Amino acid sequence: MPYFDKFPVIEYDMNKDDNFTLVTDLFVRYRLTDEVKNEGSLYYNYDIKDWDTPELLANKLYDDPHLYWVILRMNNIVNVNENWPKTQRQFNKFVDNKYQGKALMVSGMDTSDFTIGEDVATIEGYLSLEDFFDTTADAEPRLKYERSDVENYMVQEEIDNPATGIISSIDKTNFNIGSKTNPTHKVVITEADGTFTSGDVITGRNSNTTATIVSAVANTDADHHFEDEDDNYVDADDTTRYRTVTNRVYEDEKNETKRNIKILHPRYLNSVVSDFESIIERS
Length: 283
Fold this sequence. Notes:
The protein is of the alpha+beta class. Helices cover 21% and strands 30% of the residues.
């Protein structure tokens, strides 16, 4: 029995033109009572396997894939994409998409900020020159010049193979586990080109903010937060800090918490299905 087959139909003006069409009334919802879901003798626990889907699991346990809704209702699952654990392949794709780019842990960014969306590059540094500086008169090939405002020019010394990218996010949390007075912050770079190396200085094209790279890793493996032995969030330099949780580990642990579900014993299935049908028919 497909889940929606028993739902009532209603007339609905889909195009707001007074032409009504019969559609399934999706606002009618059937919920298993808390007594059923919490009564230990009515269900058993099951760990979802990587290949399990609600339909495959219903077919395996109840010999009917259309009874997937019993499993979902038993576990208060409304959105399968959000509440059902991802397969390893789905998980890897999800993490790679959510945490794109390079994560740079930087120091020396206390008094100013980069701008989200601005270009950054590793450089030797900027020198501010008065506007009487004649850029055309200097033939030094390793210098290039940019007009920064009406009165000043900026001169930038190029380095070999500078790394470039675009700022996508900035986290001013202190990620320095050794010191609160010398904090490091996380700057995420997308469209990275070249190699960002510890000790390099990055500079924002628009903000002129500079920061020194302490470390650079794929954003998927960057620090997400820090925890004590009781899994409470703590500061990086907290003496109770027990472990560092990366973005990938954080998402993996969230995904794993969704694996253990309640399965209604097959001997109670007919009663629940009959109850569902009678409620829907009365709606």
